[in-house]
Specification:
- The structure holds two protein chains of two kinds.
- Chain A is mainly β.
- Chain A contains no helices and eleven strands.
- In chain A, strands 2, 4, 5, 6, 9, 10 and 11 form a seven-stranded mixed sheet that branches. In chain A, strands 1-3-8-7 form a four-stranded antiparallel sheet, with no helix packed on it.
- Helix content of chain B is 0%, strand content 52%.
- In chain B, strands 2, 5, 6, 10, 11 and 12 form a six-stranded mixed sheet that branches. In chain B, strands 3-9-8-7 form a four-stranded antiparallel sheet, with no helix packed on it.
- In chain B, 35% of the residues are buried.
- Classes of the chains: A mainly beta, B mainly beta.
- The interface between A and B is medium-sized, with 27 and 26 residues.
């Protein structure tokens, strides 16, 4: 089944404890991205990747890192989480960024709480 | 700056009522347009999309949307809603050149009363 898989789905952590949220897709998609969803703010893009080793900042990249060493994986790294990073995170991918091939497939979401 | 506005943040309707959710975007170039839906406790799913051609597009579950280029709008409609349409709806815009970013609206929470 074509899908985007995120782990963990739920996580409670403490301020400053590094964590990684993994994202993997099995569709050979070029484009992958991370979003955070907060009440009243909708989805805001954190980082995106156009292909292996090519990443760029979205609208809210502060406090986050990403890497794209393999086409299928796009982990989100919080080096020193803070309470304002408590949010629902979604990973998404699309075949490419080109018109007609840029429909996003979303993962199930990762709910992160930073105490 | 590029942005997407969804004017209705919360909408409550009775079953069989008609639905129209507004979406306006600010971007002068060519765009691809999307509506995604998020049912309670689930991830976002594509409802419908517009790339080019006929500005009236039909999606799943009886939804449709009309792209009006002169108004920079892509409103979502459904003639008769069902209780199962209770969800949050997001409009999204993807410029076809100049940026790799998708821009999402803040979402509209729809509650349909049985």
């Amino acid at each position: 089944e074509a899908q985007v898989t995120q782990n963990p789905r739920y996580l409670i952590t403490v301020t400053g404890k590094k964590l990684t949220v993994t994202c993997s897709q099995n569709m050979n998609h070029e484009y992958m991205s991370w979003y955070r969803q907060d009440p009243g703010l909708g989805l805001r893009q954190i980082y995106y990747s156009m292909n292996v080793e090519v990443t760029d900042k979205g609208d809210v990249p502060e406090g986050y890192k990403v890497s794209r060493k393999e086409k299928r994986n796009f982990p989100l790294i919080l080096e020193s989480p803070s309470p304002n990073q408590t949010s629902l995170y979604f990973c998404a991918s699309s075949l490419s960024r080109a018109s007609g091939a840029n429909v996003l497939t979303f993962g199930a979401g990762s709910r992160l709480t930073v105490l | 700056a590029q942005s997407v506005s969804q004017h209705n943040h919360h909408v409550i309707l009775s079953e069989a009522a008609s639905l129209e959710l507004g979406c306006n975007y600010s971007y002068g170039g060519t765009v691809n347009l999307f509506w995604y839906v998020q049912y309670p406790g689930q991830h976002l799913q594509l409802l419908l999309k517009y790339f080019s051609g006929d500005p009236l597009v039909k999606g799943i579950k009886g939804f449709e949307a009309e792209f009006i280029k002169s108004k920079f709008s892509f409103n979502l409609r459904k003639p008769s809603v069902q209780w199962s349409d209770t969800a949050e709806y997001f409009c999204a815009v993807k410029p076809t050149s100049g940026t790799y970013k998708y821009i999402f609206g803040t979402g509209t929470r729809l509650k349909v009363l049985a």
